[in-house]
């Protein structure tokens, strides 16, 4: 990838990935903390807001997945690709645990639908990890 200088219309040196693995971890941790805070502020008998938060958590995981896909596309080292998919499978586990807990505490909120979607994504990431090892 090249950085394009808009003012001079000249290409500059190739740019390595701007985001590090630790940044992806920090982003995921932030999303999980935000979810926990949001869930804590919702009354127990309000299922629609709980369902919306479960959907948001799934959406944030999907955004993280998109970032990993972009990194994988430009990565030449297969070991690094496998590590990224391993990271993503691990993030799916963390996000799924939050939704499993929410569903266990509020079975009528519908979080199990998003939980199942995240498990499907986890299986996909795990297959991709194994394929690149």
Write the layout of secondary structure elements.
Layout: E1 2-5, E2 10-14, H1 21-40, H2 47-74, H3 78-105, H4 111-132
Helix pairs in contact: 1-2, 1-3, 2-3, 2-4, 3-4
Any overview of this molecule?
The chain has 133 residues and is mainly alpha-helical. The protein has helices at residues 21-40, 47-74, 78-105, 111-132, and strands at 2-5, 10-14. The longest helix has 28 residues, at 47-74.
List key phrases describing it.
133 residues, mainly alpha, two-stranded antiparallel ribbon, 4 helices, 2 strands, disordered N terminus
Largest sheet: 2 strands, antiparallel
Shape: elongated
Proportion of residues in helical segments: over 70%
The overall pLDDT average reads 88
Taking the alpha carbons of the first and last residues, their distance comes to: 25 Å
**From the helix content, strand content and strand pairing, which structural class follows?**
mainly alpha
Strand-residue fraction?
5-15%
Radius of gyration: 18 Å
Helix-strand sequence: EEHHHH
* Total strands: 2
- How many H/I helical runs? 4
Q: If strands are numbered along the chain, what order do they take across the biggest sheet? A: 1-2
Residue stretches low in confidence (pLDDT < 50, at least 5 long) are 1-5, 12-16
Question: Summed up, what is this model?
Answer:
With 133 residues, the protein is mainly α. The protein contains 4 helices and 2 strands; from the N terminus they run E-E-H-H-H-H. A hairpin with a 4-residue loop joins strand 1 (2-5) and strand 2.
């Amino acid at each position: 990838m090249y950085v394009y200088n808009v003012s001079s219309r000249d290409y500059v040196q190739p740019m390595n990935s701007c985001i590090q693995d630790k940044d992806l971890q920090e982003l995921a941790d932030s999303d999980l903390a935000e979810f926990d805070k949001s869930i804590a502020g919702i009354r127990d008998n309000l299922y629609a807001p709980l369902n919306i938060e479960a959907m948001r958590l799934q959406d944030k995981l999907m955004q993280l997945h998109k970032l990993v896909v972009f990194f994988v596309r430009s990565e030449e080292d297969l070991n690094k690709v496998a590590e990224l998919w391993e990271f993503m499978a691990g993030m799916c586990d963390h996000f799924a645990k939050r939704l499993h807990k929410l569903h266990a505490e509020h079975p009528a909120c519908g979080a199990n639908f998003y939980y199942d979607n995240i498990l499907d994504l986890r299986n996909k990431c795990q297959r991709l990890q194994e394929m690149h090892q």
